[in-house]
Design brief:
Layout: E1 3-7, E2 16-17, E3 30-31, E4 35-36, H1 40-48, E5 53-57, H2 86-110, H3 122-134, H4 136-145, H5 151-170, H6 174-185, H7 196-199, H8 207-214, H9 216-225, H10 232-240, H11 261-276, H12 287-296, H13 298-301, H14 306-314, E6 322-325, E7 330-335, E8 345-350, E9 356-364, E10 373-376, H15 387-392
Parallel strand pairs: 3-5
Antiparallel strand pairs: 1-5, 2-4, 2-5, 6-7, 6-10, 7-8, 8-9
Helix pairs in contact: 2-3, 2-4, 2-5, 3-4, 3-5, 3-6, 4-5, 5-6, 5-11, 6-10, 9-10, 10-11, 11-12
The structure holds fe (ii) ion.
Fe (ii) ion (FE2) is lined by residues 187-188, 216, 241-242, 270.
Length: 396
């Protein structure tokens, strides 16, 4: 069959989309749902879902002439702001991040008594939003570079960061971003009412223990509900952050659109941070690996397109990921490439013989067809690479 490749912005009603059976890792933004494109509204939805390309069968298509659709004409703007250079923003926000983790420890310990005070968190969540507005890569990379022994507290902050970044990417306004950031920060509040031997068990929980662990979503929601004037969006997000699209989640086995937008966003952010973090029973996993595991589980867990958009926001190799190149050099991803996600910009810092490269040499892999990323480095392999200093030294 005569098949042509098309960018989603050039899709037209009447095009018959075909599934070429291509792998996600090579074509992460390929729209491959077989069938006829019926309307402009459908094209807008495909673009909103984060797809970038498609293949169509010219014989089965009946293309109607149409004005070209551009992102601008649809009112869609590239939603990843980079107003301030990454290095500069990292310098500025490093203290904000550690302040947030310290504060999370305070309010989480206080929540053991079933009480919470939201007021001191407000400026910190606003600080997260301000940083994401300046450069979305700063806190999303910092959250994965910094390692705290006490996972539970850093996790609250990280879920707030990834939720705010994702909300921003999805186009939420500043007021809703603030509520979302608060929901992220407090999403696991109820865990502090779970017995500590279950919460910190360095092993798989028994069925009985897991049943107790599951109560944390409603316990947290209940504690927050006692705060006068709290926004219902926060309560729904916290109570629903373990619900799943196919109804297999908890506590209420909600299905599809029965799960609030905040619940869905928190679920993605929570899963990403949990998988990629170091825990007492497992090492930190490279972000790329965490995203590929989430991609495998996406059908049951999230509505179609949601995870794809999250991956598109971060990149398959998120900024700050240490990687090895086919040339044998090692480096750190310094800038993602939304069009060619497998070919980001890397800051090369180590030669194949182990020699350090100072200052780091920036290589745009999209412009070097012969050089590719072989794999993201594990925490052990990247032990001698000071990722934060490298990113701070860069101008992008
Ligand atoms: Fe949770």
């Amino acid at each position: 069959m005569p098949v042509l490749h098309v960018s989603v912005e050039d899709l037209r009603p009447g095009m018959y989309i075909v599934d070429m059976g291509l792998s996600w890792i090579d074509h992460p933004y390929l729209y491959a749902k077989e069938g006829l494109i019926r309307s402009h509204a459908q094209i807008v939805e495909i673009i909103h879902q984060g797809f970038a390309e498609a293949y169509y069968d010219t014989e089965q298509s009946n293309i109607q002439p149409a004005e070209p659709i551009t992102l601008k004409s649809l009112g869609i703007s590239p939603a990843v702001p980079k107003i301030v250079p990454l290095g500069e923003e990292l310098e500025q926000v490093e203290n904000t991040y550690s302040d947030c983790v310290r504060h999370a420890k305070e309010f989480m310990l206080e929540a053991r008594n079933g009480t919470v005070d939201l007021e001191p968190s407000r400026p910190l969540v606003q600080g997260i939003i301000d940083s994401v507005n300046r450069n979305i890569d700063a806190l999303t990379s910092l959250a994965k570079i910094k390692h705290y022994d006490e996972y539970t507290f850093a996790h609250c902050v990280n879920v707030s960061i990834f939720s705010v970044a994702f909300g921003k990417y999805l186009g939420l306004d500043q007021k809703r971003l603030f509520l979302l950031g608060m929901a992220g920060l407090f999403h696991d509040l109820g865990k502090m009412q779970v017995p500590v031997e279950i919460l910190n068990a360095p092993r798989r929980l028994t069925d009985e223990e897991f049943a107790v662990m599951k109560t944390h979503a409603l316990l947290g929601q209940k504690t927050l509900a006692s705060v006068k004037g709290i926004a219902p969006e926060i309560l729904m997000g916290v109570g629903q952050h373990h619900e799943k699209h196919d109804g297999s989640g908890y506590p209420d086995c909600l299905v599809g659109s029965g799960i609030s937008l905040f619940g869905r966003i928190l679920s993605v952010a929570d899963c990403y941070d949990a998988l990629s973090s170091k825990r007492v029973y497992k090492d930190a996993m490279p972000p790329t690996k965490a995203l590929s595991i989430m991609f495998e589980m996406r059908k049951g867990a999230w509505e179609p397109g949601l995870l794809e958009r999250f991956i598109k926001m971060l990149g398959i190799y998120p900024v700050g990921t240490p990687v090895e190149l086919t040339s044998g050099f090692k480096g750190v991803v310094a800038k993602s490439n939304p069009v060619m996600p497998m070919q980001p910009v890397a800051a090369v810092v180590r030669a194949p013989d182990g020699r350090g490269i100072v200052p780091p040499r920036t290589v745009d892999l999209a412009k070097h067809a012969g050089i590719k990323i072989t794999h993201p480095l594990t925490a052990g392999e990247a032990e001698d690479i000071d990722i934060l200093s490298i990113l701070k030294s860069l101008g992008n």
